[in-house]
Predict the structure.
Amino acid sequence: MEDKKLFWETLEKEYALNTKWLKVRKEKVKLPTKGIILDNFYTVEGGEIVAILAIDKNDNIFLVRQYRHAVKDITLDLPGGSVEQGEQPIDTAKRELAEETGMLANSIEKLITYYPDSGRTACTKHIYLAKKLKKDPDKFYSQDKSENVILSRIPLQEVLKKMKNGEVKEATLFVGIAAYLNNHTDYKLYK
């Protein structure tokens, strides 16, 4: 197979950083091109993450606004979080939807799975569509003490305007909206 010729060979590996929140793998790799060896190729291990595009019956989208210290900015994004060990991504989506929005979904389906930054990060992201929403009487959004989020309910058309004028910088929101528009509306971004 032609693609096999593109694979790198790992000669050595160790963890440069290994904490609960972040793992950075250091590898010595051999490239298929002329046998070039890279002594220090670093990969951030991100595991599996989910995000939820929660849309109510009036086409409002539930989004979270929060401070992200890595970029030192306030972001507008889909609610979501990390898949815990032994947990299935769909169960994470249900849990995170309840934790971050205080909502339950009577309808939830996977929209798309993708690699958010395959050049530096070993991470898989699943985006789920949640519809037929109702309040979860046992949850109030942002129960996680390490998170300080503001829940917003914004009409889809307004979200599209925010994306167009640069107010949205989170790729997950772009990917989720594109997958939703292409697969669940008459509007097609691609065929």
Remarks:
- Helices lie at 89-101, 156-164, 171-184.
- The radius of gyration is 19 Å.
